[in-house]
DNA sequence: GATGAATGAGCATTCATTCAT
DNA sequence: TATGAATGAATGCTCATTCAT
């Protein structure tokens, strides 16, 4: 139940691709700078300098600056998010014996930790989603499919035990995610470093348990 | 209980300032284009063309492009949002006789309509907030003060009637806002035009009533 | 019967257009450099420097480097060539009283002088024609129409006097032009400065008179 | 009297040089692309891709891109053109028995076919000649020497028979070439595929015979 | 006040060329 | 010998900003 953080997953993802060391460092520099200053305010020269390579190298594999952005986001969309979601689902299923309240507390805490650990990356994603909504669309579809199939039985079992309101499981997921998002977005945007995770978890769970009881 | 939409308020706001017709049209053009393409991807020439003025005029009053952005956001932050919040508070206070559930339904619906009516403007705010978090900070502080003083008595009365959980009123506000934000953000980002307002209101309220009952 | 040379016509043409002094000098610098080094080997910075303006100015009116080339060639294609052709036709018609041999000598000499006076400009045209054949197409059509209507009667009168072979007048024009082109192209390409105009005129005319007699 | 076309000669020429298969394919790719898009608009990467080799290989033998161009043009200038000219001269000499008119018809037709068969290659040569006039100089000198020595006797014999004007043989050659060039250049530039060779030959010869009769 | 020509630093991108493997 | 990643100068082009009229 120990989780790999996104940065490590990202680095691993790079290793599997057929990229040279320099190209890898270009991607890392891009991630850093896009998160720090936003895509539009990061010049390819900035990236080249931080990566310790020439500008030509930046374009050798990624063709365009946008290609670079895609290459930075691709692993998040196509590999890391699903894998993290998968890990999450496995964890959830391993907790079936728990009561719904314990389960919820675990799940919420897990996601909060995950989101706050990767504040920077989340910021890029939010920026890009606002500019290109289809990213959000693809992501929700992708994660939706993944979660629904895995989580359905779990919710049914809680519903059978009378611990969970008998809504459609997607609605429950949406509700939980919505509440978490609503709580965390200010913290992500403000790069709030001193969020009290336990207190936040408690606050969110107390409310969710009320709202989701039958 | 009829609300002025943001665009009209914006135009009115412009009228009160000591700006010439040309300067006004510059601000309007900026609002339109920033919402459409984002701040970074809008050139001052674009603005000048849409406003029907010369490039020089764009800089006459607003000095820099960033000054223009500030001038576009200022009325939202310093005037329109507070005024809309004030209207909203007045409406809420006028409904004191209702039960909490009716009150909540009204409030939620009102905010959803407001947010969806001004999707474009919301998008700029989100973009800018992600880039410059202090905007979010200022806004929350500002609205927080305004709402707290106005809404406190209202919540206490509902709490006395046993219709509302006895949390701190700010926590209740934060919770309600968080849930609404969590629900609406995807629709705002995706400029979703066909949101079923009644269904969404019902879904949110059903959940909130559960979660906020004592 | 005195002819304005292309450079003067070009300058005049510029004066009529609504261009600033700087833009005019950009066009002149472009003409010079394109002729000297060819389009591809001339950078916009080269042009800016020679014109004594900033690079931005180069693009202000002409949008792209290709736009600049078009602006340089346009007056040749749409204004100067036709006007020169018109002048030429008028001159020819004014010489009707002469014998065909005198007429031919005059015409050939006139065109040789014209071509050699504007060697540089001719070089650009040749380069561009090789790259974009439709320029040649447009030019031949344009000049063809102009010459045919004007020259037909003239040739008929010479044919009636038994001084000129009874070919279609377009064929005669094509033949004369072809011979001149065949003779001059080496000199234009090599920017040959010491062409003996009288000797060349004699050589061409002697041959053409033989070939074009009935 | 059947002629090998330039492309085959080119390939043969490559075979004789001590080049590897890869180098040969680099030269072929260069010829193709330079003809298609011009020297300046062809990148060494384009060439490498079409040749199916790496970029490094392109530079292994030819050192620079210009070296590549020289290597492409060298066989034309130093080998193919002279050889073709030689073939042509031999053919001409084999026709001594004919009348001048038959001889001319054959010669003109032969050159037209040759030029039109190799339109693409001609285009490169024209482009390069305009940019670097010394190519034209070298070529004319080279061909001049070759033709003069071979053709002098032939012309004298026709002149003795009273079929050919008693001009210097170089002037006659220049005249014939000039007329052909003047006729064909438009077709080469426009890559005109549907030239009626017989009609053109007739037209040119009819005129040349008039012009070159004593 | 308004204009729009002019600026010049900055940007993404290309490309001939080199060199370690 | 062949490769292709790396280079970095050069290029076409953009854009916020200034200023003379």
From TrEMBL, chains A, B, C, D:
User: What's an example GO BP annotation here?
Assistant: regulation of DNA-templated transcription
**One MF term in the entry's GO annotations:** DNA binding
The cross-references to Pfam families, in alphabetical order and at most eight, read: TetR_N
* Domain HTH tetR-type, residue spans: 20-80
Which controlled-vocabulary keywords does the entry list? DNA-binding
Q: Which residues bind DNA?
A: 43-62
Q: Does the keyword Metal-binding apply?
A: no
**Domain of life of the organism in this record?**
Bacteria
The record's section on PROSITE patterns has: HTH_TETR_1, HTH_TETR_2
Q: What name does this protein carry? A: HTH tetR-type domain-containing protein
């Amino acid at each position: 139940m120990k989780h790999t953080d996104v940065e490590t997953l990202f680095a691993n993802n790079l290793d599997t691709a057929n990229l040279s060391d320099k190209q890898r460092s270009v991607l890392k520099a891009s991630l850093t700078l896009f998160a720090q200053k936003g895509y539009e305010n990061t010049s390819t020269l900035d990236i080249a300098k931080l990566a310790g390579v020439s500008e030509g190298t930046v374009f050798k594999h990624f063709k365009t600056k946008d290609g670079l952005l895609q290459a930075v986001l691709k692993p998040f969309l196509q590999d890391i998010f699903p894998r993290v979601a998968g890990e999450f689902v496995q964890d959830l299923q391993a907790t079936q014996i728990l009561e719904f309240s314990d389960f919820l507390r675990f799940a919420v805490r897990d996601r909060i930790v995950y989101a706050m650990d990767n504040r920077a990356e989340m910021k890029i994603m939010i920026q890009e989603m606002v500019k290109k909504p289809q990213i959000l669309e693809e992501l929700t579809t992708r994660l939706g499919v993944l979660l629904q199939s895995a989580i359905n039985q779990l919710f049914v079992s809680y519903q059978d035990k009378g611990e969970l309101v008998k809504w459609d499981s997607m609605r429950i997921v949406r509700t939980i995610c919505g509440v978490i998002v609503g709580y965390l977005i200010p913290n992500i945007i403000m790069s709030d470093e001193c969020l009290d995770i336990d207190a936040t978890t408690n606050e969110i769970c107390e409310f969710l348990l009320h709202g989701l009881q039958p």
